[in-house]
């Protein structure tokens, strides 16, 4: 009987470990995508500011 209990505890521990790894991996992918999106938004804001500055300077030349 003790062997079955030990075996079931070992299998459940391994299963919980695998589930934890899957969750950690998915969280890593989500965090990576968020960082990429944040960097894109920053670059886009710089682009829009530079574009509006260029357009304002171009209007002054005409």
Give a brief description.
With 62 residues, the chain is an all-alpha fold.
What are the defining features of this structure?
single chain, mainly alpha, rod-shaped, membrane, transmembrane, transmembrane helix
Kindly describe this structure.
It is a single chain. The chain is mainly α. The chain is 97% helix and 0% strand. It has one helix at 2-61. The radius of gyration is 27 Å and the shape is rod-shaped.
Write the layout of secondary structure elements.
Layout: H1 2-61
Q: What gap, in angstroms, lies between the N and C termini?
A: 92 Å
Mean pLDDT reading: 93
Kindly state the percentage of residues in helix: over 70%
DSSP summary: helix tally = 1
The biggest beta sheet is recorded as:
none
Total strand segments: 0
- Rg is 27 Å
What portion of residues belong to β-strands? under 5%
> What structural class do helix, strand and pairing data support?
mainly alpha
CA-based shape: rod-shaped
H/E order of the elements? H
User: Which runs of at least 5 residues are low in confidence (pLDDT < 50)?
Assistant: none
Transmembrane segments: 6-26
Keywords: Membrane, Transmembrane, Transmembrane helix
